[in-house]
Amino acid sequence: MQPLTEQLWKKLRSANPEKVEMALLRARAQGFNLKPWEQEYAELRQYIPLPYYAEQHEAVAACYAIQELDLSERELSSLPAVLANLRYVEVLDLRNNELTALPNWLNEWSNLKEVYLENNQISALSADFLAHSRLELLQLSNNQLKALPAAILGLHSLKRLDLSHNNISSLPNLEEEQLPNLSFLALNDNPISQIWVNVGQLTKLQTLQFQNCLLQQLPESICSLFALQNLWLQNNQLRHLPAQIGQLRSLELLQLAQNELQELPDSLDRLASLKQLNLKENALQHLPKLEGLASLEILHLEHNQLQHLPSDFARLGRLKMAYLQGNDLDRLPLILDALRALEVLHIESNPIEQLPDSLVDLPNLQRLFAAHTQIKRLPRRLKHKLEQLDIEGTPLANGEPQEEAEQEAFSHHPTAQENEEGPSHSPKGCMLPGLGVVLLLIIALIYGITLF
After folding, report:
1. What is the rounded distance in angstroms from the CA atom of residue 239 to the CA atom of residue 92?
2. 108, 113, 245, 400 — which has fewest CB within 10 A?
């Protein structure tokens, strides 16, 4: 690729902006590197009306070798036919327009690898368009599709498919050996109630997103997605998880917030690669063992019905953030020393009355949120080691927290100066010796004992 010279760029900038557009198209087609000028080019192109293309048949024809065509954000309701001859295009960007359908001549663009169509008004795609054997990315989110076109399943090179924010209520049957290279699948915000029973055959899938759908259960075969790293299932109607979910050994993120889960399978603690687990706003009353989650860094358990935490919670050595607010916890595990990485702890709106002294020994703890709990004291030195402490709505909130003041008063240890000089001669310090002399005099008077 040749660099576009500064001199040539100055000439382009001084020209009519419409001519600039065509000159840049030619430059791309001829192998010039436009990356250093992309930002300024993007600023220019927004002022160029698309009808200009239709008047420049020869100019467009001269760009027949162009590989990337960006027509995003042009308020297009259709594509100019003059573009039909650009059959070498590999990346087609039509985002944020008003397209309701695609022209038939696009079916002849056999080199297409990436097509961006999000934020249009497309309600259907032709089977011929979906016959592109080289297509690797298809972005169709925020359209008006009512069904997933069955022809999509025949795209053997497809790696990324996003159909989020449509009106798809069911999925066509997934046949054997279909979508063999798919690594990313998103169907968020569709009224889908069931995932493919044989979804496990998508052996290269790394990210699966079904958020804000109507799922009530997951197929057992989902546990065979051994390459899966990210599973997004927020805001569905799931009541339980497959018993063998622990087989997802590559899983790093599991998003299950806002479901109806009452319990979790015992195999959960076999997810040794899991870094983020989000279970907020479910109906969990207890948790299985967690010790096997050796990589866990972020844990969301807020707004469940938990009354206690498993003892091995305190052995999550890589945990950085724990969100436990809005449960029925009346205590935390006494020994928390192993939570060496913990930085943020949320326990708001729990009936907790006492914090374990071991919180002071957590070297990285910076923020403690304990508002609307029942705690009456803080472990000594805890307040001074934190960057942020929230105790609003607690018995401590009306005044300065007393960090075990009573215990401190009865466990006074003399300072080095006191050891050398003796006890201080404060008024309180003189009261006990004076009282002793008076008592001795009274006893002497009673028994007639001469003391001096």
Report:
1. 42
2. 400
